[in-house]
Amino acid sequence: MTSARTDTLARLRGSIERIEGHEDTARLDRVALGHAKADRVLHGGLLRGTLHEVFALETRQVGAATGFVAGIAQRLTQGRPLLWIRQDFVAREGGALSMSGLAELGLDLRRVVLVQAADHEMALRVGADSLACDALGAVVLDLWGEVRAFDPVASRKYTLAAQTSGVSCVMLRTSALPAVSTAETRWVVQAARSAPTARWEAWGAPILDIELVRNRHGQLGRWIMEWKCDECLFRDAKSHADKAHSQPVAAAPPDRPHQAPARPQRRIARRA
Predict the structure, then answer these.
(1) Are the CB atoms for 130 and 161 separated by under 8 Å?
(2) Residues in Cβ contact with 69 at an 8 Å cutoff, skipping those fewer than 6 apart
(3) Over the stretch 75-133, which tens digit does the pLDDT of each residue have?
(4) Count of H-run helices and E-run strands, the chain
(5) Which own/partner contact pairs does 99-105 have at CB distance under 8 Å and 24+ positions apart?
(6) Residue 71 neighbours by CB under 8 Å, 6+ apart
(7) CA distance 84 to 139
(8) Which of 148, 180, 185 is nearest to 169 (CA)?
(9) Which of 123, 201, 220, 245 has the most CB atoms in a 10 Å sphere around its CB?
């Protein structure tokens, strides 16, 4: 019995060492994002069958981070089902996940399974079990705030499970700070201003300010990316934060001068 336990422990240690090194990860498939500069830094794209982390440091950036996760999940699944595990508190604070929005981003809703978890502990348990199912293309863990249960030991288990099954795991963390983990990549995402559009268009293309803050086998970087919904690829986009909007502004009121005060002056009644 002691010998069997020793052998099992040795195999687990060897697996963790291979994960920590470059030996196994070099043989995994890479999926290009479509953004030339980012793919160059990533040596061809994101590694499949491993753990990636995406952070929205503020609640108001949860939409941008969710869009980025939807994009990379679409790239990682490659036509296989996507399991999205979402903690209930994320919806209460950041809004419900829109299926029509995911469809507009290019995801096939027939292959998207949404699981609502009461808390982060349940989400982590479901995620760990799901990574053992090699029929999935990717698993998204959508968590809120600091999660003490996801410590370096837990992240190693997730990385090992993802590598064993070949199922990619993407952790979306809202209102949390990056911590030590075995993630292959770690991203911080916030919204960027879209380019001015024609008058008949409601909004512009999704533009994201994306920073790669951890890359286990390469350099870091920061880019302004545009998600091409029809092509399901990221492309280079220029920031329009410093450019004036070209669309016409509201017309001046016709019944008063442009600089007239909005609040009417009070009249003082005179005594006869």
Answers:
(1) no
(2) 54, 140, 142, 170, 172
(3) 999 889 999 999 999 988 888 898 999 999 999 999 999 999 999 999 999 999 999 99
(4) 7, 11
(5) 102/70, 104/229, 105/67, 105/70, 105/71, 105/74, 105/206, 105/227, 105/229
(6) 33, 105, 227, 232, 234
(7) 6
(8) 185
(9) 123
**Nearest partner of 140 among 151, 131, 149, judged by Cα:** 131
CA distances from 62 to 28, 40, 73, 191, 252 (A): 30, 27, 16, 9, 36
Q: Decide if 13 is inside a domain.
A: no
- Segment 195-225, tens digit of pLDDT: 766 665 656 678 999 999 999 989 999 999 9
Structure tokens given for 88: 């209930």
Q: Residue 92's domain is classified under what CATH number?
A: 3.40.50.300
Q: How many CA atoms lie within 13 A of 54 on its CB side?
A: 26
Percent above pLDDT 90 for the chain: 63
b vs e for 81-113, b when ≥16 Cβ sit within 10 Å of the residue's Cβ?
bbbbbbbebbeeebeebeeeebeebbbeeeebe
* Domain count of the fold of the chain: 1
Structural domain of 58: 35-236
Contact status, residue 227 vs residue 105, Cβ threshold 8 Å: yes
